[in-house]
């Protein structure tokens, strides 16, 4: 099998990050609130002003959890990351 | 600055793949049809049955081009990759 391309590698990384944190407790294919908190703390340090602030994590969960099951599934996670990546991409590039 | 995390790296890779192909002709922040074809051929080999088949590329462009400007911008690209990644993630894992 040929080496994965850059795009395939990025897609695989998104899947493996989600799986790594979703596996730690409860349903293996869902992020609970505490799994979401630890993913954000470790993978997107700085995104949450204060990851220990329950209200901030509650709000993020509410924003991501489109089907209201109090968990984040992979498609909800990818929609969030896609939006975040678009925001980063549209930022003016440093000269 | 701390090393980028796995998630930050994946997001940066999505941006750099898009930019690499979008820069080659026309508007620097858009994929023309021929740029989309070459991105697909090189970055997702096998996705298009026949990348030389104009009709297949036309159909893909139509599916991705939500605002009908005959080009693919970064958000249209990321929505496509997010959907593709979800499809890959939900495939039954090989035992």
TrEMBL record, chains A, B:
Q: Where is the EF-hand domain?
A: 52-87
SUPFAM superfamilies assigned: EF-hand
Keywords associated with the record: Calcium, Metal-binding, Repeat
Q: Which Pfam families match?
A: S_100
- What is the top-level taxon of the source organism? Eukaryota
Cellular component annotations (GO), alphabetically ordered: cytoplasm; extracellular exosome
**Carries keyword Hydrolase?**
no
One of the entry's Gene Ontology molecular-function terms is:
calcium ion binding
- The answer to whether the entry has keyword Zinc is no
Q: Name one GO biological process term.
A: endothelial cell migration
Q: What is this protein called?
A: S100 calcium binding protein P
Q: Which organism is it from?
A: Paramormyrops kingsleyae
């Amino acid at each position: 099998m040929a080496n994965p391309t850059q795009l395939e590698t990025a897609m695989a990384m998104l899947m493996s990050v989600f799986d790594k944190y979703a596996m730690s407790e409860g349903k293996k294919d869902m992020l609970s609130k505490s799994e979401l908190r630890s993913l954000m703390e470790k993978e997107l340090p700085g995104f949450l002003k204060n990851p220990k602030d329950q209200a901030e994590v509650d709000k993020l969960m509410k924003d991501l959890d489109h089907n209201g099951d109090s968990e984040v599934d992979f498609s909800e996670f990818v929609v969030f990351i896609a939006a975040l990546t678009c925001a980063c991409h549209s930022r003016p590039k440093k000269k």
